[in-house]
Design a protein that fits this description.
CATH topology of the largest domain: Rossmann fold
CATH class of the largest domain: Alpha Beta
Bound molecules: guanosine-5'-diphosphate, magnesium ion
Order of helices and strands: EEEHEEEHEHEHHEHHHHHE
CATH superfamily of the largest domain: P-loop containing nucleotide triphosphate hydrolases
Distance between the termini: 33 Å
Number of helices: 10
CATH architecture of the largest domain: 3-Layer(aba) Sandwich
Structural class: alpha/beta
Helix content: 25-40%
Number of strands: 10
Strand content: 15-25%
Radius of gyration: 18 Å
């Protein structure tokens, strides 16, 4: 346990390491690979998740904790993913947690040097949850390359807050976690940018979402499932019919067992 040296004293962060026994809020860390998710995770929790560019990938989620303003936050580091729609194991782990794990807030870490490519995932996350903070990381690299990021315009266009960070130097992290706390607590209201479609599509999604809720009572994000069905996603259809979707949703509510260290596959 330790304190974050670069945090101003008015925002006292306490790294809680693996102590996530009694948490008030769950915060998920999502993002493309190599955007600095694990670096953010380590800085906030004091843990040592693998970071770096080598081809070793975290294939399960890692959990740790931090405390801020008397509240305990459980932070969940998800595998890197470019999309929530494809079938790879990494992407499924990230997608299932975001869809069904019901985090109180999701931080999407994006690379400031290639923002546009990263926005694909941000927009997908905004479709399934409205409690989102965009962490524009590697801002030091961006500056070096002469790239400027206008966080206000970004936040306005996305409808959720954006914070500029250089996680490796712990810059911007105190603002990141206070913004997360404000989104969780409702002090910052978000109104995420969503693809609306025309009236007929919206009606079809509404009607289908009701049927999904009947078929799988208590399933979070029935609207997202309905949109996938309308898009002809066979995997989602199969998972709904077989009951797998409901089982996955129930499983996401269970904590990761502590004796299970994160699985690291080298050379994949
Ligand atoms: N220059 C710079 N490098 C960073 C920053 N954050 C992370 N990195 C580096 O980027 C690489 C990928 O980081 P990592 O946390 O493993 O990314 P992840 O795949 O999203 O978990 C590592 O070499 C980090 O040291 C940052 O803010 N600035
Ligand atoms: Mg990582």
């Amino acid at each position: 346990m330790g304190d974050c040296g670069s945090c101003p004293s008015k925002i006292a962060l306490t790294q809680m390491g693996l102590d996530i026994s009694r948490w008030n809020h769950v915060v998920a860390l999502a993002g493309n690979p190599n955007t600095g998710k694990s670096t953010v995770f380590n800085a906030l929790t004091g843990l040592r998740q693998h970071t770096g560019n080598w081809p070793g990938k975290t294939v399960t989620r890692a959990e740790g904790g931090y405390r801020l303003g008397g509240k305990r936050f459980k932070l969940v580091d998800l595998p890197g993913t470019y999309s929530l729609l494809s079938a790879s194991q990494d992407e499924q782990i990230a997608r299932d947690f975001l869809l069904f794990g019901r985090p109180d807030c999701t931080i999407v870490v994006v690379d400031a040097t290639c923002l546009e490519r990263n926005l694909n995932l941000v927009l997908q996350v905004l479709e399934i949850t409205d409690k989102v903070v965009v962490c524009v990381n590697l801002i030091d690299e961006a500056k070096r390359k002469g790239i400027e990021v206008d966080r206000r315009t970004l936040a306005r266009d996305l409808g959720v807050p954006a914070v500029l960070t250089a996680a490796r130097r712990s810059e911007g992290l105190s603002e990141l976690i206070s913004t997360v706390a404000d989104v969780v607590g409702g002090e910052i209201a978000t109104s995420p940018h969503r693809v609306r479609g025309d009236g007929a599509i919206r009606q079809a999604v509404d009607e289908l979402a009701e049927l999904v809720e009947e078929a799988a009572p208590g399933l979070p994000n029935a609207r997202w499932v309905a949109m996938r069905l309308l898009d002809g996603d066979h995997r989602v259809r199969q998972a709904l019919l077989s009951g797998e979707l409901s089982q996955t949703a129930a499983r996401q509510q269970e904590p990761v067992r502590k004796e299970q260290p994160p699985v690291v596959l080298q050379g994949v």
